[in-house]
Amino acid sequence: MFWELSNKFYLKNLFNKGTNEDDYALVIGNSQNVVVDNSFIYARRHGICIGGGGSVCCVTNRNIKINNCTIKNDIKSGVPSADMHGNVENVIYNGCTIYNGANLSGKNNALINCIIYNMLNGILVYYSEVIGGELKVANCICNSWFHISFNFINKSCRYTRFWKGFLKTHL
Fold first, then answer.
1. Nearest one of 105, 148, 142, 111 to 127, comparing CA atoms
2. Is the Cβ–Cβ distance between 100 and 128 less than 8 Å?
3. pLDDT by residue (tens digit) across 103-158?
4. Alpha-carbon span 169 to 46, nearest angstrom
5. DSSP label at 148?
6. First to last CA, the chain
7. Closest by Cα among 94, 75, 97, 82 to 142
8. CB 104, CB 131: distance < 8 Å
9. Are 67 and 39 in contact (CB under 8 A)?
10. Which residues are CB-neighbours of 33 under 8 A, at least 6 positions away?
């Protein structure tokens, strides 16, 4: 499912169990004021991907709420199931269960009250394309078989704060 250049849309009770050919289950591109609620989303690569292009009429992805969703991918894909790119602001994953890691990018984005399971390489949250603001992981239960200090990886040369808040770990 692909949404691009959209404003104010609401998706509820999506169910995609996926096949081996589904690289992306839900793509939100250059859209604003989006809510996704109570859904099960699986894809071979990214269950949810928030990004887009930089051509004429493209806007920054902004004000996106992903609530109470289960997001999964094929653990052998080597990429996070919850993915975002640098043109993303004010995105909150709240109360989600995320299998195989998440990527936080852009500006002022958060994982709050989530249960996060690590990727095959042990990473829980991967930071890239950070443009400023604050990226938060707060009140999350993080499940990993690696030491927790290894699980938060920054691949961006610019950043403000990576994460804050209470982090429960199950090692």
1. 105
2. no
3. 999 999 999 999 999 888 888 888 888 888 888 888 888 887 765 554 555 444 33
4. 24
5. G
6. 35
7. 97
8. no
9. no
10. 7, 8, 9, 62, 63, 64
**162, two tokens:** 């990576």
Cross-strand bridge partners of residue 152: 125
* pLDDT digit string, tens, across residues 82-111: 999 989 999 999 999 999 999 999 999 999
Q: Which two tokens stand for residue 50?
A: 């928030």
Residues in the chain: 171
> What DSSP character marks residue 150?
G
Contact 117, 98 (CB under 8 A): yes
Q: Stretch 52-76: mean pLDDT, rounded?
A: 89
Tokens representing 22 are 């589904």
- Cα dist from 103 to 10, 25, 80, 139, 152, whole Å: 22, 16, 6, 17, 10
Write the single-letter amino acid at 105: S
Q: What is the DSSP string of 10-33?
A: EEES-EE---TT-SEEEEEES-EE
Q: Please report, for residues 18, 58, 111, 129, the alpha-carbon distance to residue 55 in angstroms, rounded to integers and kept in the order given.
A: 30, 6, 29, 18
Pairing of β 152-154 and β 102-112 = unpaired
Q: Is 77 helix (H, G, I), strand (E, B) or coil?
A: helix
